[in-house]
C-alpha cells in the first residue's frame, strides 16, 4: 500500500465532473488536486490506494439496532427496518453497514446509481477499493453535530449518531426532525457557513446549544477523514459491490478440507495407537482430542455420535464439488457462488453425452440473483437464462451453459 491516497470526489450525478486529490496517508496533507471530466483518465493508482467519496445526499443513513452475527445478516435485516422509509424502489436498493455491535449505521443507496459511479471510475482507469459518503466520514466529537455548508450542499454530521446531506436550504428544514430521532444525546450543534441564529430559531426550546464556528476548508477536512475513515461509517463496497477476495475464499475451502484430512489421519493413528497399547485411558484421551478438533472445524456439529463416520461424511461432502463433472469442467458456478454469498446453487445437472450443463440458482431477493447472473454472463457467451420463479419464499432461475 502506498503512502499516498488518491481520492475521487463525485459530483451531483455520475456524469458530472469529478474532483480528485492526492493526499498523504500519514498527515492528510493535500499534495495535488484536479478535475476529471467524462472520457479523461484519472491519475493512476492501485485499487488499494484509491477511494471514491459520494455526496451524502445519494443515500439515506439510519442508526439501527442490529444484533446480527455477520454483515450479510445485518444487511438483510436492514431491508425490513427501512421498510416504507425509502424513496428508492425496493428492488433497486442496496444496503451497507458500518462496524459495531448492536447499534450500527446503515446506508441505503440506489444500486443503479452506485453501479454507474463505479463504472465511471473504471472508465477513468481506476477501481476504488472503498466508497464512502461525505457526511458519514465527516469528523465530529462525540455528542457534537456539525452543520456545514459546502457550497449549496450541506453536510449534517453526527458521527455514530448518523448523518445526512442535502441542499443547504432543505437541511435547515430537516434538522429539527432529524435531531428528534437521533439515537443519543446531542450536546451542541456547530454551524459553519450558514446562519446559526436562523437554525436556532427553528429548533424547540430545549434543543442543544447552537454555536457558530469558523468556516472550514471542506476539501481538506474530507481528505484528512478519508485517510482514516471512522469504523462506524458504512463502506458501500460490500455485499454485491465488494471487490471479491476469491483467492482467500479458495484457500479457506481447501484449508477446511485439509483440516478434515488431518483429523481423519489423527483419528486413524489414534485408533492404531490405542489398539497397539491396549490402553483404554490413552484411547480416551486421543479420542477426546480428535473430537475437540473436529468440533472446532465443524462448529455446526451439535454432538459427536460416531467420529469416524462423521469425519468420513464431512470429507465426502468437501470432495463432492470437485468430483462433480459439471463443476470440475467449469469453475464459473463456484466463482459466482463465492462472489455472491446471498446466492445459492441448488442443482447442477449435466446432460450427457453432450456438453450442456444446467444449473439452478436461488436467492432471497431478486436483485441478488440478477447481480449474480450479470456477472456470470460476463464470464461466458453461451449462457441461456430461464424465467425467474418463486418457490418456498425464495426466487430461483435455471441457466444453461456449455461446459468447458
| Top CATH class of the largest domain | Alpha Beta
Total number of domains: 3
State the helicity in percent bands.
25-40%
Distance between the termini: 37 Å
Low-confidence spans: 245-255, 321-329
Average pLDDT confidence is: 82
Number of strands: 18
CATH architecture assignment of the largest domain? 2-Layer Sandwich
Going across the biggest sheet, name each strand in turn: 3-2-1-4-8
H and E order: EEEEEHEEHEHEEEHEHEHHHHHHEEHEEE
Question: What does this protein structure show overall?
Answer:
The protein is an alpha+beta fold and 404 residues long. The chain folds into three domains: 4-241, Nucleotidyltransferase, domain 5, CATH 3.30.420; 246-319, no CATH class; 325-402, 2-Layer Sandwich (Gyrase A, domain 2), CATH 3.30.1360.100. The protein is 38% helix and 26% strand. It contains twelve helices and 18 strands. It has a five-stranded mixed β-sheet. Helix 11 (332-339) runs antiparallel to helix 12. It starts with a strand and ends with a strand.
Amino acid at each position: 500500500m502506498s503512502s499516498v491516497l488518491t481520492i475521487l470526489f463525485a459530483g451531483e450525478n455520475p456524469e458530472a465532473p469529478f474532483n480528485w486529490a492526492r493526499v498523504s496517508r500519514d498527515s492528510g496533507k493535500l499534495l495535488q488536486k484536479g478535475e476529471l471530466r467524462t472520457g479523461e483518465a484519472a491519475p493512476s493508482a492501485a485499487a488499494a490506494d484509491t477511494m471514491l467519496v459520494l455526496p451524502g445526499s445519494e443515500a439515506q443513513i439510519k442508526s439501527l439496532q442490529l444484533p446480527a452475527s455477520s454483515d450479510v445478516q445485518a444487511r438483510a435485516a436492514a431491508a425490513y427496518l427501512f421498510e416504507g422509509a425509502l424513496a428508492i424502489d425496493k428492488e433497486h436498493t442496496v444496503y451497507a453497514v458500518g462496524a459495531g455491535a448492536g447499534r450500527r449505521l446503515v446506508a441505503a443507496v440506489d444500486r443503479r446509481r452506485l453501479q454507474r459511479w463505479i463504472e465511471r471510475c473504471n472508465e477513468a482507469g481506476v477501481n476504488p477499493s472503498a466508497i464512502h459518503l461525505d457526511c458519514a466520514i465527516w469528523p465530529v466529537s462525540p455528542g457534537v453535530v456539525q452543520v456545514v455548508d459546502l457550497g449549496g450542499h450541506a453536510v449534517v454530521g453526527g458521527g455514530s449518531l448518523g448523518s445526512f446531506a442535502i441542499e443547504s436550504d432543505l437541511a435547515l428544514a430537516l434538522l429539527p426532525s432529524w435531531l428528534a430521532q437521533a439515537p443519543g444525546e446531542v450536546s451542541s450543534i456547530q454551524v459553519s457557513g450558514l446562519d446559526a441564529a436562523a437554525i436556532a430559531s427553528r429548533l424547540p426550546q430545549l434543543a442543544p446549544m447552537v454555536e457558530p464556528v469558523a468556516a472550514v476548508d471542506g476539501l481538506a477536512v474530507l481528505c484528512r477523514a478519508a485517510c482514516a475513515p471512522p469504523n462506524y461509517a458504512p463502506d458501500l463496497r460490500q455485499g454485491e459491490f465488494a471487490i471479491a477476495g476469491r483467492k482467500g475464499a479458495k484457500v479457506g475451502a481447501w484449508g477446511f478440507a485439509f483440516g478434515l484430512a488431518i483429523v481423519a489421519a489423527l483419528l486413524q493413528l489414534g485408533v492404531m495407537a490405542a489398539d497397539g497399547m491396549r490402553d483404554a485411558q490413552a484411547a480416551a484421551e486421543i479420542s477426546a482430542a480428535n473430537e475437540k478438533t473436529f468440533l472446532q472445524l465443524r462448529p455446526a456439529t451439535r454432538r459427536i455420535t460416531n467420529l469416524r463416520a462423521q469425519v468420513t461424511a464431512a470429507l465426502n461432502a468437501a470432495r463432492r464439488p470437485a468430483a462433480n463433472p459439471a463443476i470440475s469442467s467449469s469453475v464459473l458456478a463456484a466463482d459466482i457462488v463465492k462472489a455472491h454469498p446471498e446466492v445459492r446453487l441448488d442443482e447442477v445437472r449435466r446432460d450427457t453425452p453432450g456438453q450442456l450443463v444446467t444449473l439452478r440458482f436461488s436467492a432471497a431477493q431478486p436483485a441478488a440473483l440478477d447481480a449474480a447472473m450479470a456477472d456470470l454472463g460476463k464470464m461466458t457467451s453461451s449462457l441461456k437464462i430461464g424465467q425467474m420463479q418463486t418457490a418456498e419464499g425464495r426466487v430461483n432461475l435455471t441457466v444453461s451453459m456449455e461446459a468447458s
